[in-house]
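Aim 2, interim progress. The first record below pairs a target sequence with its structure tokens.
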Amino acid sequence: MNHGFSHAVEIINRRAAAGPLESKIFAQQFERFLIDGGIDTVAHYFVGCFSAAGDELGQWRAYADNGRGFALAFDTVLLEDAFVKASGSPTADGSTFRVVYDGATAAWMHTQIIDAMFHLISLPRARRLKSKTLHGYMDKLLTLTWVHCLRTALFFKHEAYKNEVEYRFHQLHAGPPHPAPEVKYRTRPYELVRYREFDWRANAAAALKKVVVGPAADKTKGALFVKECLHAYHHGPSVELTASAIPYRS
């Protein structure tokens, strides 16, 4: 997401370079908002990523233990319905969409957003606002601009990543002072990552259609492991088991 959002940072910095002092300060705050995790003060965003490429070399290398892992293939309609609906009715916080691999269009949209709001940065100059009122105004403008740019960035990636054929499941929850519901944590080096669990096995067990054993995995042991997992944990219809056809080199 940060890569896609960098369009907006570059554009606003270019506009501010030729603008008044307050626009330069605004641009600095805009960039700091991204670096310092300001999104957490606005809303709670959670994104799950899927791919329409079920047997793709780059995906195996990046996301499946360097080819030794497994890929799960789902019925898209069943999985989406379980994610965006509750008791058969659409929820307000869930959405799904395909990623568009078009960096130029993302940059154009960010340009339109920033150009439309840029004059608002200097609007209070002649109004002699009190410091508290001025800070409140600028904070609101910063937040609204940031959110609109972020929502645009969610839908786009650079063309170089088009082999991913990515499809995103997105949840948006009201930010502080409201806590995100049912948050869990996992660790990365020097980082604690928040996430929400999508229990598809409880809500859409029939969506699982196929399991693919990775191209670098031991095919016999991998297949046996999948069968044992399905027997122990899967309570839906039968699932096809296949192996990647890619001749793999690590």
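The second target in this work package is listed in the same format:
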Amino acid sequence: MTKTGEAQGNGKRPLRVLMIAPTSFFSDYGGHIRILEETRALQELGHKVVIVTYYKGSDMPGLDIRRTARLPWHTEYEVGSSRHKIAFDLFLAAQSVREGLRVQPDIIHGHMHEGALIGGVLSRLLGVPLLFDFQGSMSSEMVDHGFLARDSHFYSAARRLELLINNRLPQAILTSSYLAAQLLQDEFGADPALIHPLPDCADTDRFHPDLLDEAQKQRLKQQLGIPADRLIVAYLGLLTDYQGTSYLIDAAARLKAAGEAIHFLVMGYPNVEHYRAEAARAGVEDTMTFTGKIEYRDAARYLALGDIAVAPKLSATEGSGKILNYMAMAQPVVAFDTPVSREFMAGWGVYAPAGDGERFTAAIRDLAHDPARRQELGRQLRLRAIETYSWRQAAERIQAIYYLLTKA
């Protein structure tokens, strides 16, 4: 914990926060970045944050992470929705109770619906408030991930549970976008007084366009086997169909057929071998590089190679934090036209109709031939990231909610 006098300097004491993260924290994607950066920024304000999470994941320097016991009968599971998560969450609930009794927190900060459900029970046991960090509709994401069919009985049950979690358990709700805040009100009837939009943010010092000079970029390209004269389209995130990975392969095939000297740098996991095979079947194995997992500490270095960044995610409810890192790197971004993409980039993004692979490819091609537009879009997006999406400002807003709930 650092700068412990800061909270006290505002006439407030530092708080003990029990953060429940129903995931393999830390892994290098999506909501994990939000948990990491929120925690770091809250610690900078002087608060003690204890994170309870699954036994898998990477330990991060400076973070107090308490892990569950290993499952005796199953050690591997899929990213995203999976029936195995039920067992993992039962173990997480037991560990959260143990840590709650040890830490005696002033407030519980539950991420995602499972964290809010566990945190809601624990908050009543300990007599402390629950803050729910909402990152998208649980039932809609299960459909997006192919885990549930919208017309199934299980979907109806998941929807009812989601209503309970949203409306009965938390004393305040953070949302990762303004769209999500509206979703909670319109679809779930959540009390607007409880909702605090807190969009994902970017570390604009870590993600900086001048991180590598030209010689360093060329050396890294050589290490990756990317021809020096190719314009690079960069993607960093999960490799799954619901993230739109297949659209990248489709775009690479269309651009190669058109004779464009464009190379796709696809960074992330899982399913790396599956998509490499798909790229080979499409005849674009020579214009696509799949790096596999990139550690968060190295993400900015690899992103620095990109001339254009892409966000082909289709979900209408999930956040898309990768866009903010692209923005911080001053890279123009081609994305499907979703409300979250619009919220982050406003008029400075380049949009294709959701699911339209031909228009998505055309947007990449047009930017590739317009370096002046690429530079201006990138400049404006970085400026927007600096002015609007700061983790320090976000932590100060979280702190204010903590103090409101705890009356500390």
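The first helix runs from residue 5 to 9. This observation will shape the mutagenesis plan for the next reporting period.
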